[in-house]
Amino acid sequence: MKSSRIVFPGVRQVIHEAFETPVPKAGEVLVRNRYTLISTGTENRVFTRNFDAGMYWDDWIKYPFCPGYSAIGEVVALGDSVSGISLGQRVAFRGFHASHGAVAAANVVPVPDGLDDKDAAWFALAKIAFMGARASDYRAGDSVLIIGAGPIGQMSVRWAAAAGLEHIVVVEPVESRLKLALPGGATAIINKPVDQCRDDVLAATGGKLPRIVNDATGNAGVFDAALGLAADFGRVVMLGITGSPSRQRLSKDVIIRGLTIIGAHDAHNDAEWNNVTVPRLFFSLASRGRFDLAGLNTHIFRPQDAAVAYETATTRLGETMGILFDWTKE
Q: What domains can you pick out in the chain, each with its CATH number?
């Protein structure tokens, strides 16, 4: 049986190709995907190769490259020694943009009844943002400034709201993205460049700079401004890896005001919080209405139209948020 997948053969090249459907090995399940969600930050960087030579991205990205890591589908076959998972069960897993994927049964997460496939597909981006929330070490009544209202910023807003923060301020120059942050729990939105918003941040947080600043942009130029917007002895969380780390320089704020800078990344897993346990929490909150996802999905494409999807993702930033491939429409 033939399956299909999306592949980047080279820079700014994308194809939809056939491949042999994998056979699940012992301990694996075969999933027929329904939807996969584009991680626009990561995948745009891979697609355009927009990063400095010799850094993390350069080591990881080799063409041909299979993009994607957020899949929702239905279990259609079980390998030997699999228990606790049923044929026909709806699951989430870290899979490529493909019609089928074989994955270790231990790494799939059941999707609760009543949660829409397209909303459930945000689980991987929610998990990444969770690592930023965890690194932030939120306390009840805290204040946070979230820089960037893209997909990771949107998820960061929602984790901050779930944690019970008093002030959740979002700064973003694209107004359409800010509007999606409000139903997610933002208490104030600022439609300005980050280096021009200090007075607005103070007004939104009762005259005190926030203890926590989350940079959810992956933009090296944001770093200096982020340092200046944290309270004395505050914490600046860098969520993601920029393409140009040499542009991220320490300012006088770090030592003079005693700031802590901490990196957060998808790979920061442990026995308590990982690719299984965080999605379970996300699904629980979303199913109970505590993690608002309404309006986040803006575009759905057939896999055959992948070239259009990635061109849209890279050239129409202000019009996009959640971009999905619908594998039921092949």
A: 2-122+296-329 (3.90.180.10), 128-264 (3.40.50.720)
